[in-house]
Amino acid sequence: MRFIKIFFVGLLLCVNLVIAQPSWASKDFTKGADYAEVTQALNQLLQVKDTPEEAGYTPEQFQQRLTQLESQKKTIETAKKRAQCRNETGKTIGVYASDGGKTPSELYFLAAGQITDDDWDCDGFYLPAGTQVVFSPNTPVQELTEPIAVKFVDGTQSVATADPTTGAIQLNLEPAHVLKAAESNGLIPTLSQADIDTQIPSRELID
C-alpha cells in the first residue's frame, strides 16, 4: 500500500511538471513593449532600404541603424533571463531598475564589482554631467554636458567598465535609447559623481 501511495504522488508531480509551466522556465520577452518597438522600427527602416537618403540616412548610417535594430531584436528573442547591469567601473554607479515588473523603474545605486539580481529588470545606467563615456565599442569618447540615462532592451546583459588610462566609462553594447533630463519626466536628477560616491549601494538589487 505504501508503495502505491508513493507511486501516485510521484505520478502527480510528473503531471504537474508537464501541465504547469515551471517557475524556472525562461521568460518570453518577445511579448513585451521593447520587442514591439524594435520590430516596428525595423520594419519602418526596411521600407526605405532602397532609398535611405529619403529618410535622412546616408548608406553608412542606414547600415549602422539596421545592424543596431537587428542586434536588439536578436537579444530580446534569445534572452534567457531579465536584463542585468554589471558595474566594473571601480566606483559606485547609478542604475535604473524595477523589481521584475512589479514596480516602476527607479534610480538605484550599484557598487563596484556588483551585478543586479536577475529577479530585477535593469533598464540601464545613469551617467552624470562631466562623465567621459564610450557608448559602444569602436566609438570615440564623448564628454557629457548634462546628465543622461542610457537604456537597453529587455534581456540585455550590459556592462559598464572604466578605461584604466582615461577613466572614461565604456559600455559593452550600444544603448537602445539615450535620454536627457528634459525627456525623462523628472526621472533624471542632477547628481555629480561625487554625489553618487556618497550613496549607500542599494542592497535590494543584489541576490
What do these coordinates show?
- With about 210 residues, this protein is of the alpha+beta class.
- Helices cover about 30% and strands about 20% of the residues.
- It contains four helices and ten strands.
- The chain has helices at about 1-20, 35-45, 60-80, 195, and strands at about 85-90, 95-100, 105-110, 120-125, 130-135, 140-145, 150, 155-160, 170, 175-180.
- It has a five-stranded mixed beta sheet with strand order 1-8-9-5-6, with no helix packed on it.
- A hairpin with a 7-residue loop joins strand 5 (about 130-135) and strand 6.
- Helix 2 packs antiparallel against helix 3.
- The longest helix has 20 residues, at about 60-80.
- Mean pLDDT is about 85; it is low at about 1-25.
Rounded radius of gyration (Å): 21 Å
User: For the terminal residues, how far apart are their CA atoms?
Assistant: 44 Å
Structural class: alpha+beta
Largest sheet: 5 strands, mixed
Helix count equals: 4
Q: Level of helix content? A: 25-40%
What best-fitting shape do the alpha-carbon axes yield?
A: globular
- Beta strand %: 15-25%
Low-confidence stretches: 1-25
String of helices and strands: HHHEEEEEEEEEEH
Whole-number mean pLDDT: 86
